[in-house]
Amino acid sequence: MISVSASSQEFKYHTVKKGETVYSISKDYNVSEEDIYKYNPDSKDGIEESSKLVIPLGKRDKGMPAKTGSVGLDPVEFKQHTVKKKENLFRLSQQYNVEQEEIKRYNKQLYSRELQKGETIRIPVYRELKGIVAKPNNASEEEIRQKFNENEVREHVVLPKETKFGIARKYGLTVKELEALNPTVDVLQPGIMLRVGTNVSPDPVVLLDKNFKFYEVKPQETLFGLAQRFHVTQDSILALNPIVEQEGLEWGMILKVPNPEEQDPENWVEPTLSNEAEELQGEKLNLKDSLSNFSPKSLAFMLPYSLDKIQVDSIGNAAYDAAVLDDRVLRISLDFYSGAKLAINDAKDLGISTQVKVYDTKRNASEVANIINTNNFDNVDAVIGPFLQSTTEAAAERLRNRNIPVFTPLSDKEMRGGNNLFIARPTQETMSSTMLDYLQKFGEGKNIIIVSDAKSYEIKNKLKQIFPASRSVNAVDGYVSEESLRNTLLPAAQNWVIIESSSVGVISSTVSALNRLLRDELDITLFTTNKNDSYDNESITNEDLGKLFFHYPSVDKEYSLEASEDFITRYEEEFGVTPNQYAVRGYDLTMDVLLRLAASEDIYASFSDYKGFTEYNENKFLYEPQPGGGFRNKAVYILQINPDLTLQIADDSQSNIFREFKD
């Protein structure tokens, strides 16, 4: 980004980054979209990544010093400030000499509300780095040689591929100093002996990582200018070159910097090793780090309360309580919305203000049509709900022409509705495919046993294609014998038993027999591609499943008490009970929708702006287009029950459901 000025108006050239829009850029610079269009008329037809825009900046007040805090400069620490009566952002900006936008940036709740007396906010403190200018070194060659006496010089044998830049950096010299110490050496050759300093850097002489290169500091160059040249923060330059912070910037100093020939300078980051999860899943997104659209959001919740069925005069008494307890759909709706309310409150602390309307669908498609016809949905950013198939289809179809996204949170059924329908629950087919991917990736070298009944021939055939050498145990009259299992298990191998059945008898007899066979000190792990309702039967205990380290696919995980402690505590304080799975799903889904709206221009743009999955307390989301239109969440967990009855993610990297996306 380069600054220019004309007629007392200051401008900056902005290079468009991936996912940015004219709207988001206008918010970043606190200018109007029309101001950007005025100086960039072509941008009305859209902007492309890496294109340049002229941004007109607001004029600074005369006599006021420029405040610290700028693009490319990170705070070194934060001060805690408790807001006093009558204090506002302007006063704090003056008091701490920092821009108001920088205070908002680190206290995102201030995007949606004013300062409140007694609240504590963070004030960023910046290091004054712009003044670091390369100091000249005007010493002659003779003066340089005299500077290094015999006790300050050692010998270095030149290795293949070494350069003067690399050798100078290794010994804390400038190239001029290295040449002065070796006046007879013109061209480096492997095996030549050089006189060098004794201050040896731990960095390698040869840069093996092509993402970096050596750079010689020129006269009058500044740290700020170098950060701009290589498109990194000044702190990044210091991190790569600690000597600059220790001794200051010197003319001729050799710095390690990003290599623009090998990296996209707009998106350069220091390389890190990626783990297996990143290789398979793409990127796990934290949208809280990408918030840019702080305009108020509008959400409409369509929930199947059916309050018309509850007598008004019974509210608040035992009859009302009984009516709620007897209506499972109503209980789920109330739990779901309680979690959603907490998400809306938490989003406000991030600077996202939300206008909410709640409609009772009465579990009737005609009522949904009536709601849409008699209410103004023009400014609605997203609809969450309805829960049921008929009401969801009615909402999506009637809002399709206005392109308003409709998120159905609980149903996994195939639905009509067009490209504005988002089904937030994966299908059983998706979960089974995820488990097959897991088994295929990590089943090599295992003794695979497939237990199935006649109804499960389809999934059995798929498993046979993956594991041609697997052994089969077929249920007879709804029962699997211990002897038939014993004949397939190997004493010196990892035995992976995959059970495919919806019969309580088949599952129960298999689990019981395998538990008895554990006494023979066999290594047995149990799997299924479909943990159906039969596993809830009292004859199949979690204790027995845990002893076999039972693995299965799931839409959600069990929230971690440590990771979600704050959420659980706030929910209990607000509602007096521990959140159940529906309350957690209400929170997770609503927070995901709000963060997507605040990180992009709208829901649809968020999917092109950010490639990857999001994850919250119990749920993760990765929406993919469906052949018949609309989007469906394809993110699935592989869970494992342990002998101590704890539930954990078996290995979130062990599913390749994201491989198609990555490719």
TrEMBL record:
It comes from the Bacteria. Keywords: Signal. One of its GO terms (molecular function) is lytic endotransglycosylase activity. InterPro entries: Leu-bd, LysM, LysM_dom_sf, Peripla_BP_I. Residues 12-55, 79-123, 213-257 form the LysM domain. Transmembrane segments: none annotated. Pfam families: LysM, Peripla_BP_6. PANTHER family: LYSM DOMAIN-CONTAINING GPI-ANCHORED PROTEIN 2, MEMBRANE-BOUND LYTIC MUREIN TRANSGLYCOSYLASE D. Belongs to the leucine-binding protein family. This is LysM domain-containing protein. The lineage of its organism: Bacteria, Pseudomonadati, Bacteroidota, Flavobacteriia, Flavobacteriales.
